[in-house]
């Protein structure tokens, strides 16, 4: 059987996926079904291949291979499921245990496994941890701790192996509470931790440290210090990311620029970096006269140390393992197989950390290598393409084909010109790295020499930045496409696989592929088996196939002048572009309303047909709401334009995220900004108006009876504080909007108080009034002022009598929202309530007749 490690790794990954999903009943049922099928198939195959004495044997070598393949796959699946289930159960226990300590100050004791500087803090990985709150104690395998580092020498020098005691708040890591948010829970689990701590006091209780890891840590710190001295701040940050795996000092704008253009892999230590550095050391040793063994051992020591020093990321360790396999193959005189080495690396990494499987870096790293070693090599042999620029373009295209769904799933946008950018930037990465390495070496004893050495790298970085700026001028350079569904991903993958298989066969027929590849395969099998007959049999069969192919060509009238194999890259690129359309965002049916969990504030997204409406978008408790919640949510839905952004009133807990979109977002555009008419002329609304106009949007002021239409959705303003206009109390002039979509009606109330509620009810008493028409059929109420007791009066609730009420507030807020009195009123009126502080974002979907609702954290997404 060829490449058993690949089959074993595939089964291992499948087993871990089943185990880590968390739905024990479903995954265990699937696994037992797999066991049963394997058992039945095994019994049947055994009887076919090894019949009772006197029986006629019906099996063949192909049958044996198929049986062995199946059992290797099943063995990998069982091992993967067992390892994944054990890790999942351990982390679940630790998560529940840490949840009991939430809000309390704990004392933890443990041993430092890793210490890394961050932005104003020190990140510690504590192992073999004992936590205590009062008389209650718990144990954890690993806890991530963040300690403030002011840089004034207040913290002792910490090295791996030291024992410490830290006081602070210990908390379990929750699932994301909004669509599109980064999944910190899986991120921490990929590091083997289910909880984190924000330390306030730290004391060293044991000063013994691990010399090897401490040396690497000091060496890395020393190299970073040299780079800071010989480079400008921006260049130093990139050099440290590329050479040392330290991205903590990079400006967010620079990191975003690399990511948006599809070249962020330059900032992650991977196989390319190790090939340049480790390969260089290996070749130097060989030039000095050392044999394969000694050169490989010295190179291996350096490569392993480099991988650990740069943070032991999944991509770095994958590269280390594959490099070791390459050198071992060279030492043993064996051929090196990229895919087998990749399978071994996957098994080792996922055995150590099963949740690494869901990390974007892991998927992109393994996807890129499998594209080059698997899909790329397969197409290249089928097209008989020699090494050269055409081969480089084909490999880049194959990488793009494989990683495109991964990039969209994790980042929601696609760098349209990424393949061309990589063709230009990758050849220069060696210059950048060698320039930095030489700069560190010379800068350690000759400062001016170090500055001169990094000059070449500086110009490479300037070229990268110039290239990115030029690409930004091109149309659609970064497409916001949203997160594709699993159906879209499966259709894309199956379609591309079938199409590529078809064009490879066509290309092979044009070149007599059946004969040439058959001969080579036969020879390789002969060498492996050591049987001359295998070569002869394999050659004869495949020669016949080649002759048959040749005859078919003759019968068909000879070779086609414009055969597909003459333009393999162009045809492959066209197929990629065609199936790429499958991943485009699919317009939703009906109306979707998402009340985001923005902390202490309001933010509601509505989507219908091709329109997106944002009602408020701010938070007083989450300063990074726009960057980490609002923008990712819109991107995950494939939204690059907000057609209408409605501001109920100008308090910061309703506009902070919206201001970020208009002032800082490069991917989300606000087309129309709607402001309350009573607030016109106030400073905050002038600021909003100016931000919208600078961003290229239009501004409108909304007054009672005004209406906004977005497809089949109508937003009607019912109230804005009454007459005379209120003073500087912005809550009092909150816009009250009624959303009508066919038979669905929802009321948005901003932060209005009971006085405004009563004023609106008086208008509703007038027969045929606009207020009476809309308030009489409200089904869903967005409760005012985050459930404060200053709103949602009994008379107002009795008049509306909605089927459902929604409250937006921050979990554990200091205002006491929602008010117990208000919740009691809701209970008395028998109105069900859904709260963002309880279950995260609330999602409503309706076709105008029926209504479905649920919490995002419950999985109803």
From TrEMBL:
Gene3D superfamilies: Ribonuclease Z/Hydroxyacylglutathione hydrolase-like (3.60.15.10). Residues 30-201 form the DUF4131 domain. Pfam families: Competence (PF03772), DUF4131 (PF13567), Lactamase_B (PF00753). InterPro entries: ComA-like_MBL, ComEC_N, Competence_DNA_uptake, DUF4131, Metallo-B-lactamas, RibonucZ/Hydroxyglut_hydro. Keywords: Cell membrane, Membrane, Transmembrane, Transmembrane helix. It is found in: Cell membrane. The keyword Transmembrane applies. Residues 597-810 form the Metallo-beta-lactamase domain. It comes from the Bacteria. The chain crosses the membrane at residues 29-46, 67-86, 263-284, 291-309, 364-381, 393-412, 418-442, 449-466, 567-586. The keyword Membrane applies. NCBIfam families: ComEC_N-term (TIGR00360). This is ComEC/Rec2 family competence protein. Residues 243-503 form the ComEC/Rec2-related protein domain. It is a multi-pass membrane protein.
